[in-house]
Amino acid sequence: MTSPPAGEPAGGVGDDAGSPTSRQLRQAQRAARRQAKDAAFELRQERRRAKDGTSWRGHHIVDSRGLTEAFPEPETPEFSTASIRRRILHGVILVLLLAVVVAAVVLAAMIQRGELTLPAGNDDPDIAPASCPASTLAYAPNNTVTVNVYNGGAREGQAGQVAEELRSRGFVVQEVANASAALTAPAVVVSGAEGHAAALTLQRQFAGSDFIQDERSDASVDVILTSAFTAVLAVPEVSVAPGVLACPHLSPPASGPAPDQQPVSPAAAGQRISMLP
Fold it and tell me: Which end of the chain has a smaller Cβ tally under 10 Å, C or N?
């Protein structure tokens, strides 16, 4: 009596040649489960591809990143000819503006230090005599003389120093500022016809000073210190004797009417005094 083959039950449903065995049923079930898993995986992949936006119905979608990777930007940007010309024009304009600003600062510094004098306009010219006053004048007391001191030289602060010295001698000092005079004397004394005596008193304080008359109506006197100025005359050396005004720039004197009769413009005398603000 022969025994049945191994792996097959001795009897039951598996005995028929056309019926599947339990092993085959289990294998079929496992295969079905694998197919279901594969189908679910494919479905998930399809959904993921649909969500990332890079594919549609199996076709790849090209986005900006893809275009950048396919056509990278050049290392150096290319500018048009018009753009290059505009950049050059802007650079030239900036350089010119910077040069103008630097020149203005330098000129302002030179004017402030007295190294550069701007010409005065002719709208309201100062008046100067064609000849020096010849009358003998008495020395006016210092405390009766009102004076304005102006610095027309290159040394800063000398107008303030001279103003303090004149105050110590009793003079009434009002304005201390910058000015210029087109004369070579160390100091230029300026007054009107009413201030001749006060101008004489101030000329005695400055050796080698020059006198200019303008058309002011009061007795005030201006003293302009030039680049040739060094120091005020010492008090013991100041003469208080009567005398006449000194006008070295009119030597030899120019011909013309007396100053107390008809003043003449500075252009006629060949001189100019310009006051800076």
Answer: N
Q: In Å, how far are 41, 48, 67, 86 from 53, measured between CA atoms?
A: 19, 9, 15, 43
Contact criterion met (CB below 8 Å) for 181 and 226? yes
β 172-181/146-151 pair status: parallel
pLDDT band for position 57 (50/70/90)?
low
HEC secondary structure over 26-92: HHHHHHHHHHHHHHHHHHHHHHHHHHHCCEECCEECCCHHHHHHHCCCCCCCCCCHHHHHHHHHHHH
- Read off the DSSP letter of residue 194: G
Residue 68 clears pLDDT 80, i.e. is over it? no
CA 224 to chain centre: 32
Domains in the chain with CATH codes? 24-68 (no CATH), 142-275 (3.30.70.2390)
User: What's the pLDDT score for residue 51?
Assistant: 62
Residues 6+ apart with CB under 8 A from 257: 130, 264
Question: What is the average per-residue pLDDT within 212-240?
Answer: 93
Residue 152: which of 102, 79, 225 has the closest Cα?
Answer: 225
Burial class from Cβ neighbours inside 10 Å (0-12, 13-18, 19+) for residue 119 reads exposed
For residue 242, name the pLDDT band (cuts at 50, 70, 90): very high
Reference 217, options 193, 237, 253, 238; nearest CA is 193
In this predicted model, which residue has the larger pLDDT, 5 or 111? 111
| 253 pLDDT higher than 90 | no
Q: Which of 138, 118, 119 is nearest to 243 (CA)?
A: 138
pLDDT for position 146: 95
